[in-house]
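pasting input
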Amino acid sequence: MQANDRLTPTPTNCWGLAKAAAPTTPGSAALLLVLATNAACYHGLDGGDGGDAGLADSGATGEETNTSGGADDGSDLPGAQCDEPDVGISYLQRITRIQYKNAVADLLGVDGSAADALPADEKIGKAFDANSVAAVDMLTVEAYQSVAEELAQSAIANIDAILSCDVATVGEDECAKQMIARLGRRAYSSRLSPDDLDEFVSLYAGQKAEDGFHAGLQIAIQAILQSPRFLYRVELTPPDAGAKIAILSDDEIAQRLSFFLTHSIPDDELLSAADAGELSDAEGIQKQAARLIETPRGHAVVASFHMQWLGLTDVPTLVKSSELFPEFGTLSASAKTETEAFIDHVMFADDATLTTLLTADYSIVDDKLASLYNVELPEGTPAGEFAEVTLPNERAGILTHASFLASHAHPDQASPIKRGVFVLRNIMCAPLADPPPNVSTEPPEIDPNATVRERYEQLTSGPDCVACHSQINPVGYGFGAYDAIGRRQELELGQPVDESGSLLGTPFVGPTELAGLLAADERVDACVVSQWFRFALGRATAVEDACTVDSLLTSFRSNDKDVKQLLLGIATSDAFRLRRAEAEE
Amino acid sequence: MKRYTREAAHRGSARFPRRAFLGGLGLAALAPFVPRLDIEAEAGSPMQRLLLFYSPFGTQYDLWAPSGSDVDFSFTGSISAPLEPHKADVVVLDGLFNTGRDGGVGDPHQSSMAALWSNSRLSENGPFAVGGNPDLPGVGWGTGISLDQYVAEHWNARTALKSLELAVDHTQVNPNSRMCYAGENQPITPQLNPRTAFESAFAGVMGNSEAFAKLKAQRKSVLDLTGNQLARLQPKVSSHDRQKIEAHLDAIRGIEHKLDALVGECTVPGTPEDMNPNDSNRFLDLARAQIEVMVHALACDLTRVGSIQLKDENGGYTGWLGQSLDFHAMSHEDVGSPGLMNQAYRDFHVLFGELLQRLRDTQTPLGSTLLSETLVAWGTANANGHHRSGKFETEPPLPMILAGQAGGALQTGRVLSFADNNRQAHSRVLVSMCHILGVPAMDGDTFGNILVGGAGGLLGLP
């Protein structure tokens, strides 16, 4: 749906290059070096000032992926010096809708679905929810107001569970004050300032005088939910005099940890750790991070990352031709469940590695998917229940799930281009440029006398197309046996489907071999690390983050690409524990 | 921190301190509503209002362009035919281009949408992917205030709402989906749900009751507290983040002001049906419900500045046409058929015609109609569905229509056309709209930060 038709004067390239000042990691820089050797497919961003020919030239001499310690070819790539801890600037972030929803549920024990009425979130790089740029407008603030009113009303229905003191013993006002202080501590991830506490208490008291105790509590809860300290992830610890980088306080670390790993406010145990000063060192942070990942919210966050990264958030509402794929209407919900269950299994019951995500020979399916995949469910599995099955040799890992194959296809036919582009861009972080102007990007008409490959070859054989599509299409052709809903077709026009493809020059046959190549590809490692980094920090990677990302990548590889270890690594990294308050001049 | 202190001083029996010129009319003449005219500015200056209208993906020019001469024309094309009964009240602008398509960052949907009413570029290096690639610099939000907000600031009418932004069936958080901006990086989210829009706009005028007074008092006390917290936070955050806090404070001031100002009464429309605001099958119903909310909000003088955004540059789905297809893909003729697309274009004209009719049918206290006091401007971001063809110079002209007499400042019933070799920047229309509305344009008689259109209004306007 998103427009791919960017207006560009005359790009004949495939690989747009990030500007020098733009987010770049050593990994992606290294990727650029490698891609730059594909001469026909490279030049800088169009538009005059965007390209960086110097970098391209120096890159053309690099013949091997350089992934540790920055560039060794003498260029001024970021990451060359890692003596001093450094970190990119982080702007004030407003919490996302899912974070708000989780937070109110955790804070008040209420169902947070009222938060569905909040406006949608911004996204980083089109993938991950984060509100880091736009300021709020009146509609958003009014939505916070009405949602807070609704939630406070639900909270009052269950107020005894929220009050932690006995009114009869300590009195209403003292009990209210304790509630405010306690809710505030969690909602803010820090203790209320005396000003804030006084104002909440007097708001409570004023309303109580008019309408009674519960009305007073209700308005205090409303106000806490509309407080900027709740709606924004505020970090105020200043740098030392003369320094630009601040070391986050324990409370601020607790806030980052909980929003990263649980999409919610800190729980009591995390706050206790912060109070005890246990989040000032990597060991303490690691301990809490390891605990949070294992909570139900931690599981949900891991699933959410993968669904967003792989472009699968819209699976339940995908539209397919009802004539060609009448079964898809009920299949889409199953497809989403399969992928979420599979991710959860790999990450929490299997070895948690990227390799297994990409190459597992099993999945978790129900009867509808079993029939689509042509596999047998364990005997006695009831209809609609999910169970683990061994996949046929032709399928492996997450890229052969129906959710993935259907998401990256047209309503009526598969799309080698969509699949190829997605693998290159999202799995390999290849900076693939947009289609040039003056070309049609419509899919070829379905032709009963030509194979998909023939039709796409014909479509993209023009001189303006071939430079890029000679890279894109061969990746997508490897998925050639899988139709628009992810069903395998052995024959096409009476002949066995040609599943041969090529990943940037390395030949393979079928998605199973492709998954193997990707799992062994250093560029994929670098891409996954940088995607998780963005997701964790809620911002793009900056030049100043190069050392952090580089060191995360080194650890990721030495840990057999264990994704859970990567998350712990991010949580204890410089970028996570430090803050640059003002942009570099 | 600037605060609105104006209290609801004119409650009770003397609800509406009336101006002398109203005295002779009597209440009966004011039917069907009793507007809040207490805040009217100096007598003698005509009342003006501004209403922006938007639909996506341009048009099919051959079926849109009027035939005949510039003063004696007809909407003979199948797409624009629904406007034939309204031609005396419109000015057709034929021969424009959207300045947002002429250079700058972002794809044609993003850059043209941001520029439509602001003539401003997108900011570079933002979170929104261009072409879906997270490893290239993305683009940010628009960098300039839009005309509606600019006019609202200049008029500074102390209406309950500074402005009212409504949208119909599909928006998303992306520059390709926002046309109103309070300023750089301050896109305004339009309200998609007619029921919510209605409740938010008319809550005060509906219930001047005790319950509403109580709710209002509670809201104000919470907003006061939140405002204090923001004000304490502001000096502690980085210079960049201060702007975000300031925008939040502005929003709070706006809500407080609205609560204060909602003291009148007027003829309130029926509560709109509760519809799923993203149900493209109900697109026409949703649009009509939003038109009702807007017309009544103008009639009740809850605001003088509004906008109605039909879908966005992403487009959502086309359920109301009988097939639920990806609308953006259909605009490119990837799915559906040209006939179906033209039906969509025609439906946008049907809705615009209905809007004009509703404005014409609504009497104002000054004895004229809403349409004669309003400047309505219909814009679309791209000329047609083939906007990916790159060179926008080779595309047909950007269709644009002004309507209403803007309190006598605009002479309608004509076509202003410019030859293909003399295409005019749409930014000049924005400058002309400032002139029509009695608001000074920006420095050197320009509007926005895209320079390609040069200074001054569009030749022939007003």
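fyi Chain B touches chain A through 86 residues (CB under 8 Å).
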